[in-house]
Amino acid sequence: MKDKNRIDQVERFFQHNPIEDPLYLKKYVKEHPDHKMAWYLLGREYAAQGKEGKAAYCFAQSGEIYEAFERQKITIEGPLPTSPASALHKGTTEGAVKSKSSSKGKWMPLMVILLLLAVPAAMDLAAKEDMGAIPHETAGAGPVAANAPASTTPKQEGHSGLKLYFSNGDWGKKLQQVMSSSGSGAGESVIMEAPRSADGKWNEWNRSVKPLISVESGGGGLAALKYYQSQTCSCQAADSSALVPVIDNWMHEREQAIVLQSAIQAYQKKTGTLPEKPEQLTKPYPDNLLPGLSPEMQEAFPQAVSKVNESAKVGKAQDPVQTAEKNEQPALKDQATPSSSQPKASAAPLLEPLRIVIDTDKHRLALVSGDFIIRSYPVGLGGEKTPQGEFVISEKVRNPNGKSNGEFGSRGMTLSDTLYAIHGTNKPSSIGKDESHGCVRMQQADIEELYNMVTHETKVTIGKGVLPPSSNSDASNSGGSPGLGAGGGKPDQSFGLPLQTNDSNPSKKYKWLD
User: Fold this and answer.
1) Distances in Å between the alpha carbon of 171 and those of 176, 312, 327?
2) 456 has catalytic annotation
């Protein structure tokens, strides 16, 4: 049964990852899936073609062969031969093996193994010997050796032993990273990804972040792959329901981090200095950047300020809570989940300050960080009366004109000290239409969530065709909010903050161009 499972896994790999050259290696590893030198040579071929994900898979199968050749600084220069026989005939002049330390005996170890590769009897014996070390394969999973190229990206591990890795279209690199670290002990690593927008320009965080692959290590240099998306393996996907709440909690943590970062940077821009206390971000109107801070954000505040300060010194915006692939993420623990069960993720997304993008053609407002769409809301506009261009939020007010159900709803945010604003409305039927006098109307739940997430100095871009086509769930999401699993415009868990300041302004009569 083990042999059959092993062969099935190899078949799935090649169904999804066809390779035309060299045909000999492809055929050989199919016939001898446990011959590690064949896997190593095939991995080198994939690496030469720039197919890092496929190369990582092959290197993982090669186990100690990879360790022997790569860790000892031995490199293969030039294209690999299409068969071991041709390598033996050509000697060392083509496809030569070169050591970085000494020229004597550079090619002998590889040539000896290539000779074994050319002898099926020796190959079959090696395969039988290795088979005993491979665990039984389960549905949707495949065993691999937990040895692969090392990565400079540090892994970040929660107390539960579960590690999360976010892939921004580079899941092959992440798999390589996971495989290089999974041999250090037992545990599970999950590679996640957000769907790309229809135009290919955006990561639609607002729709879902889903697991792609997990690597579960049991120690001893062996691990099991589990596939959560059928297109990744051309197989039946494993059940990911247990990971949904874990990823949801992690996403909420990342959203708190980017809101905190944006508030600190807004304070610095307005005052010229960094805040010294969390309370400086929640001052009363008119200096109300945020209505309040969660306990997790307050805990992370000192380190967040330090990171923003470091970023300012080098003139490069970075994540104050977790710089990508370099620094350890401070604990922003979800209130509903004990800290002991909170995993961390490497190379976290949402690194750039929050900004707002409004598409007048699609009647959509998106909250974005870099190329990540965090939220997408339907809005009401004023057609040609709505100005296009670049603005900033210059004022935030709760219950404008002293009402929560007036013409401006329960929240309002002025654009660049003009008579234009993003606000609520007491005419919800106007959402998705051009019935305003130029302002941006939002439903009450939507404007209240947006108000919690953005600060003064948030950039606002208004234009035509600046957002991707809406998904079906987005287009229908004018009332409720489908959850992450449903692929909605925003998650079930609305972003909320405690009210810790007085951000109303009853002394002013607002006359926005509703």
Assistant:
1) 8, 31, 20
2) no
**Which residue matches tokens 């600084």?**
73
Of the residues 58, 233, 439, 456, which is catalytic? 439
Q: Quick one: tokens of 183?
A: 């041999």
Q: What is the torsion angle, in degrees rounded to the nearest 10, for the CA atoms of residue 395, residue 396, residue 397 and residue 400?
A: 70
Q: In a 3-state reduction of DSSP, which class is residue 171? A: helix
Strand residue runs (E) in 27-138: 74-76, 97-99
Evaluate if residue 487 carries a pLDDT over 50.
no
What 8-state DSSP symbol labels residue 358? Answer: E
Q: Which residue has the higher pLDDT, 159 or 165?
A: 165
Classify strands 222-227 and 389-398 as parallel, antiparallel or unpaired: unpaired
Q: How far is CA 400 from CA 100, 299, 386, in A?
A: 71, 32, 20
Where do we find the tokens 């059928």?
230
pTM: 0.68
462: phi then psi, degrees, rounded to nearest 5: -120, 125
Candidate list 35, 252, 423, 456, residue with the active-site label? 423
Residue 106 carries which side chain, given as an amino acid letter?
K
pLDDT value, residue 142: 41
Q: Reply yes or no on whether 437 is catalytic.
A: no
Cα gap 472→489, rounded to integer Å:
9
What are the tens digits of pLDDT across the range 257-294?
Answer: 999 999 999 999 999 999 999 999 999 999 999 999 99
Phi, psi torsion values for 369, nearest 5 degrees: -135, 110
> What sections of 132-225 are H helices per DSSP?
171-181
**Would you tell me the crossing angle of helices 120-131 and 108-117 to the nearest 10 degrees?**
90
120-131 vs 2-16: helix crossing angle, rounded to 10: 110
Answer whether 403's CB lies under 8 Å from 389's CB.
no
Q: Is the pLDDT assigned to residue 92 strictly greater than 50? A: no
